[in-house]
Amino acid sequence: MESAYTPSQVAEYLSYIGLPPSFQPSSNPTLNLDYLTALFTHHITAIPYDNLSIHYSPAHAIPLDPQSLFSKIVSARRGRGGYCMETSILFNHMLRALGFDAYLTGVRIRPRVDGVPQGESYTGWVHLVNIVTVPDSEVKYAVDVGFGGDGMTVPMPLVNGLVHHNSLGTQEIRFVREFIPNQRFRGEGAHKMWVYQVRNGKDKNWVSFFAFQDQFEFFEEDFGNLNWYTSQSPESHQTWTPLAIRFLRGVGEDGRARVVGKVMMVKGVIKRNLTGKTELVKACTTEEERVEALRELFGIHLTGEEVVSIRGRQAELVG
């Protein structure tokens, strides 16, 4: 399937994320890792992760058709992002419109306790990640624009055990190729999974966050199933936990954009990480405080209709 976006929509998106002129289609850039990295960095620092449409919208639902996503995230100019499926689907169509070979696959996540993955089991498919092949290379890259604060900040080649610095402090990330505990069939023909792991320093233990199989492409029909459970089921933490994460953009020594920090909101608690260490910024206790904090700290502007739509719901802050 071709990209859902027209050249004028692609141009509007690239302008919105602030991609430098050297990477604009008019400059005929080479579709290489530098281009993919620049596109990824500008996307995650311009478009936040947020699940606010579940909580702050009259329908309390997440449309996934590409045109609705474009209108909400790009055209509206209100600083809105989306949760994993929204941002990943938008990014997938942009990648294909620009000439990259990209497809989406489903991801299983380890449940968290107090923000840290716990136990051996993984969930069902509740997340999406883009798998991208750079022209003239057989290496596949995982590019995840929608995992939030513990997500990758660089495109990651699917190479077993290769360690990457994750922009802030001493945090490192890698993929390992292995069976996850849920897998009972491990005989001939069984497929190991790519497991995304994070550690906050070379002296720390690796923690597994999510797993996927790059050989299995997910289609639009699959997105609907994932989206309904994740955004509507009371078993999904998304339905009772408002979230927002914005990566902050700076300039590296090479003059290119890089991630220099992040601001994160879980329910009403807002934290910031600029040096690898997390500090408390604000603990909101009312809706007025949270809406104002979203505007000031995340650049997210909610409409009056969206603001009042959370009233009487489980996620409302009532003081």
Automatic annotation (TrEMBL):
Keyword line: Acyltransferase, Transferase
Example of a GO MF term: acetyltransferase activity
Tree of life domain: Eukaryota
Keyword Transferase: yes
Alphabetized Pfam families for the sequence: Acetyltransf_2
InterPro entries: Arylamine_N-AcTrfase (IPR001447), Arylamine_NAT_domain_sf (IPR053710), Papain-like_cys_pep_sf (IPR038765)
Family to which this protein belongs: Belongs to the arylamine N-acetyltransferase family.
Name the UniProt record assigns to this protein: Arylamine N-acetyltransferase 2
Organism: Parathielavia appendiculata
Origin organism lineage: Eukaryota, Fungi, Dikarya, Ascomycota, Pezizomycotina
